[in-house]
Prior knowledge:
Layout: E1 2-8, H1 13-28, E2 32-38, H2 43-49, E3 56-61, E4 64-70, H3 75-82, H4 84-93
Parallel strand pairs: 1-2
Antiparallel strand pairs: 1-3, 3-4
Amino acid sequence: xxxxxxxxxxxxxxxxxxxxxxxxxxxxxxxxxxxxxxxxxxxxxxxxxxxxxxxxxxxxxxxxxxxxxxxxxxxxxxxxxxxxxxxxxxxxxx
Length: 94
């Protein structure tokens, strides 16, 4: 299963717009789960992953980082992130 770390903060305006989308996708998805990480409460993770801006999304598959996206994302962009590896496989096969 894929996991997407969503680094966010309560004071971040773009995060406030993105969070409801993340929560909705979290309820709907069976292939990926979002882990919501508040940067103010998780300084160790922020340091370990080199987070410099929020929101930041990091896609992991089988424990390996596959893609990182920084900035506010639309639902469609987050769905593309969820399907990232499938898209690459389709491109390779065609």
